[in-house]
């Protein structure tokens, strides 16, 4: 009886091989030969699913963003406002070695997207989707009366976006400044800066 091949699983395994090479060796080492060796497949098997390196990089790029998006949806289920904003930010923060490795992948993709229009468009679409989440959570906070009166939502969207990107860069380039405790403290301070003061009891 012929062996049944799960093509989706094999495709995902190949994409995971790409991310592992980026984490370990950097973007420049991502070649079809290296990918085949990492995945444990013949070069021809890789080409069956991805005709060239560009198709592989695009798939890996999408996998990183879609994974973060799916985890965000799980974390924010049933919550809104500043609590949802905090939970989404925690998904993106580079906690522990796993988070730092993901940040290495993200930074590599940023560099690549700056030079490749196709990857730039994918990156831009996903960043805009993330910014829509931030805007939604801040709007909910305003509707629920938990957003401080001085907070301009559009300015706050820019601040949260910049902080998230900055934390990822720190984790890779200045890891001692991005320990779990420091990340938590920075995120807590950011959320506090948006929160309306609690009225004093009469």
Automatic annotation (TrEMBL):
PROSITE patterns: HTH_TETR_2. Residues 8-68 form the HTH tetR-type domain. Keywords: DNA-binding, Repressor, Transcription, Transcription regulation. InterPro entries: BetI_C, Homeodomain-like_sf, HTH-type_TetR-like_transc_reg, HTH_TetR, Tet_transcr_reg_TetR-rel_C_sf. The keyword Magnesium does not apply. Residues 31-50 bind DNA. This is TetR family transcriptional regulator. It comes from Leucobacter luti.
